[in-house]
Write a structure and sequence with these properties.
Layout lengths: L2 H28 L8 H22 L1 H6 L1 H40 L13 H33 L2
Helix pairs in contact: 1-2
Amino acid sequence: MSSDRIIMQLLMPPAMSLLMLWMGRNVLISTSRGGILTENRRRLLWSVFFVLLTFLYGMTFNRELRGNPFIAGGILVLVSAFIFWRIQKWRVSAEVVAGQTDQIRINSNLPVPRSDPASPPFGFRIRQWIVLIWAVFGIAGTLAAVLWKILRQANP
């Protein structure tokens, strides 16, 4: 294997994942109320980033991983342990934040916020739908291209 190919195999998945992170951030900010990226959306964004990065590395090094099942199993165990650790950490931090918010609300006698705030302006809703449709078509096109490539390689 040439060194250029190895370098590209190491650089392309993070570059593509960072591009997805940037585009996803823009989509999530433009579709949220007031353009604020909430903690749940930030978690979703980073989760998708790491899943995509893992998937791209798996696809990039699939020959090497199929050749040595022990390395593939070890990587799978490490990724699973990392995901389990992050989920536990997010749950604990969410419980702490929820407890602090409840305590602040109880101590300050603030009114409980309404769960259904006023509807956003019509133009804002149109922009949300346009961004959502654009994102769905982009994801569908990417999946169709990957599926086409896989099927084309399977049937020469």
